[in-house]
Predict the structure.
Amino acid sequence: MTSTTRVLIGLGAGVGAGIALREIPAGENPTISKIVNAIEPIGTLWLNALRMTVVPLVLSLVITGVATAHNIAATGRLARRTIITILILLAAGAVFSAIVSPAAFALVPINKTAIAMSAGATIPTEVPPLAQWITGIIPTNPIKAASDGAMLPLVVFALFFGFAVTRIEPIRRARLLELFEAIAETMMVIVKWVLIAAPVGVFALVLPIAARGGLGIVGAVASYVIVDCAILLAGTIALYPLVMIFGGVSLRRFAKACAPAQAVAVSTQSSLASLPAMLAGASEVLKLPPRVTSLVLPLAVAIFRMTSPMGYIVGAAFVARLYGVHLSPLQYAAGVAVGVIISMGAVGLPGQVSFMGTHIPVFSAMGLPLDPIALLLAVDTIPDIFCTAGNVTADMTLATLVGMGCAEPASVLAGPDKNPRDNS
């Protein structure tokens, strides 16, 4: 039995038990609230076990990610252009999601009983003024920022630290990066241990939510899956005119080049498995130069997941809607910034580890409750299909824009570029 199946079983059992408890009149069974209150701490303990790994994991991933991107960019002009284009596409996808997601969920009717699940949740009631928010981006005390779970200041410190590491003596840089790589790997081991208990943790987190929200929570989760898939699909479709305008490739030709890789992506839910089909489409259909395909596509598979920040923002917008919270533009900006940075460092993580290790920092940066993340994890199977197809399409878009861009296409191919190590 796969881990996804076990989590779905835990979700179904938690929802079923919670709804069953809700349907029993409290006067006839006064112990219902006691049962819910007894189970809820188990879910909190499981979620806390995941949260305790987030700060060292995020810090390590950002630092090593910055160093990796710097090393790749140093190999030549083509690599630098690829990194810049990746950042632009990641940011564009996240901003698109931040604009569309709230509007999409506003159109979805969510039963008020589902919003009752927010009882007992700790949600910030005020957003700091703009000046205070800006000055708080750079932490005066990074250790305090870490202890407070202030993700955006922590990520900013990690960025500074990562760039500074690239400027020190090579021997010391290698030792320091090896330390942070070891920390990240250690945290991933802990996360994998905690995820073994995911069915129990999801059950214990979902049962109180279902007991408070009733059948309304089922409809709410269904709306999340539909909206998430629709936004991911819209973001993927938007890449086609982007390629036509900035890459000079017709829609029909680009679609023909992407179709085989997209088919593999949908069937396997793996960008790496789609790499051979991407290479064939880029070289045979798009006629991209071998030096472009051999560098850009393996690099994209290694560090580029355009749909990841989009998914983080969709999940945040859903939780905000579910809890009746209005997220300000500043909160969305924090989520976009953290999501873009985190996504590049977390690409090599296993699916469930990546989901928890990335959504928790983004939700924390936006001031949202973390309990519903278990719900999103349990139903991630369907959106993940659209994520993989979108990522493969984005990889092909990246190769096309870098290799066939209108701005100095000949100079792009100049320089002694080397192939990066594909570590995905």
Notes: Residues 152 and 337 are 8 Å apart (CA to CA).
